[in-house]
Amino acid sequence: MFYGVQATNQVVFYLLIISxxxxxxxxxxxxxxxxxxxxxxxxxxxxxxRGLEAQDGDYSMFLGIPYARVDPDNVFGPSIPIGFExxxxxxxxxxxxxxxxxxxxxxxxxxxxxxxNIFVPNSASIDNYLPVMIHxxxxxxxxxxxxxxxxxxxxxxxxxxxxxxxxxxxxPYGFFCLNTPKVPGNQGLKDQVQALRWIKENIRYFxxxxxxxxxxxxxxxxxxxxxxxxxxxxxxxxxxxLQSGVLLTNGVIQHPDPDAPLKLSKQLNHITNDINDALSxxxxxxxxxxxxxxxxxxxxxxxxxxxxxxxxxxxxxxxPTNMSSVRNVDVLIGFNNDEFFDKTITMxxxxxxxxxxxxxxxxxxxxxxxxxxxSDEIKDIVRKFYYxxxxxxxxxxxxxxxxxxxxxxxxxxxxxxxxxxxxxxxxMYFYMFSYLGDRSFSKYKCNTSHxxxxxxxxxxxxxxxxxSYLKELLHDEDMLIVDRMTEFWTNFAKxxxxxxxxxxxxxxxxxxxxxxxxxxxxxxTELRLGSRPMHERMSFLDLLYKHIGRYHKEHLWTGx
Length: 560
Prior knowledge:
- This protein is of the alpha/beta class.
- It has helices at 148-151, 154-157, 171-175, 187-202, 220-231, 260-267, 275-284, 287-297, 341-345, 349-354, 357-365, 372-387, 398-422, 441-446, 476-495, 535-548, 553-558; strands at residues 5-6, 11-12, 16-21, 26-33, 40-44, 47-50, 52-53, 59-66, 68-69, 80-81, 87-89, 99-100, 107-108, 115-121, 130-136, 162-166, 208-218, 239-243, 330-336, 428-433, 519-523, 528-531.
- α11 (357-365) runs parallel beside α13 and α13 (398-422) packs across α16.
- It is globular, with a radius of gyration of 24 Å.
- The model is unreliable at 1-36 and 556-560 (pLDDT under 50).
C-alpha cells in the first residue's frame, strides 16, 4: 500500500515519490509511515495529512480534513478554500455543521465543519490507483453529517474503492437565499462543489484515480447530485448514483423569504428593519441559538433560484422545468419500494383518518388558479383511482401511503429517468430496493419491526454503510444484501456497470435503460428483473400531468 509496512524487529520506511506535472509547477508527493505511531501520512498540494489505520479492516482513515472554511466576515455566504503548512492530524470525524440532530432532536454542531473523510484500502499503490466514491448525506438540507457512526466505510472499501464522505452547511447557514451579492443563496451546495474541487485536485495523492470519480447521495444528498447534474459545468466527476431523491420532487426549490433575517433577529430580541444590521447581528449569534430560533419559527430554507451578480459564483440560475439537458455521465438511479411506509404506518388512527391525502398532494404540486370546479373534478378522479368507493381508513393505509410516495417520489424519479434519456444519457441503470431486514433504518427510527411492510425511505443505507446504532449482522440474509448492494455500487464505480459479469453472488446481468425499455432490478434476497415499476399508477400520474401540467406550480412560477 501507499503507506509502507512494519517489519518484525524494526520499522522500515518506504518512501514513494510521484512527480506530477502541473501547469504552473512540478509538485512531489511523499507517502511514508510515522515511526512513532505507525500512522499513515499523505503529502498533497493542499497540505500534509496524518491519519489512522482502521481496526475493522485493511484500510486507512483520514478524518475531518478541512476542504474550506466559513468566511468569518460572511458566515451565510460562500466558503473559502484553504490549505495547510505542516501536518494536519486527520483523526476526528464527529464534527457536524450547526443543526437539529435527527434522532434525539438536540441542537449541535459548529461552523468549523467543512470537512471530508477519506477511507483508503491498503491495496492502493503507485501502480494501482483506485476508483473513488463520494457520498453526499441527506437530511432535507436541514441536518445530517459525514461521520462514521452513520457512514461507516468497511463494507465498501473491502471492494478496493476509496470512499469519501462530505460535510456541508445546512439550515440557515447553508441556505439563506437573500438575492444579494453577499448572500446569493445555496451556500451548502457550493460547499459541496468546493469539496469536489479539493477531491479532484488531491485524491491521486491518496491513491485515488481522479478519472474514476463517482458522486452519489441519498434523499437530499441525491437531490444535490441531481442539481449538480443540471448546473455544474466543471468536470469534477464521471458517474452519479441517485438514491431516492431528484430535483423534480416538489418542494426541492424553495421560494426564499427576503425578510428571513429580520424575522430571526426579532425571534432573538433584536428588532430591526435593516437587512444588513440583521445579518450582522445573526452572524455574531451563537450558532445553536440561531438554529433554535429557526426551528421555533417554523422557517424552512433550502435550494433556491439565485439572482445573478457580477463576480459572484452563482449556482442555480433557472427553475428545473426550464432545464432541457443534464450532464452525460453514467447513471445509477432508483428508490425503495415502500418509501413512506414508516411515516404513515406510525400515525395515530385519528390523525391518519383526518388527513385528506389526495387534496394535500394535489395542492402541494398544482395550483388551479381559483378554478375550484376543475380542482374538485381532478380530486375526485384521483380519489377514485386510489380508493375506489372506499373511505380513507386506518385499517387500510395502503392507498394513502401510495398517494404520498407516488407524488413525492416515484413519479418524479421516473420523470427524471425520462429527462436523462431525452438529454442523451446512454448508460443508465434503474433499481428498486425492497429488502426489509435488521439493518433497516425504518425499524430503528419507528419501531416497526412487528409490522409487515417494504423498504422505507433510507432503508438501503444500512446495507451500504456500517451504521453504528443499527444491529450487527444477525443472520445470513442481512449479510447477503450487504454483499450484493456493495458489489453493485462498487462495480458501477469501477466499470460504469453494476453487473459486468454474472457471478455466484449476482447470477444475472442488469440491463440498461433505453428510450424503448425501462428495465429495473429489484434488490432483495431473490434478485428479480422487471419492467416499468408500478406501471398502472405511474401511467395514471403521467396522463394526469400531461393534461394538467400547465397548472403545476413550477410551471406557474416560471411563467410557462
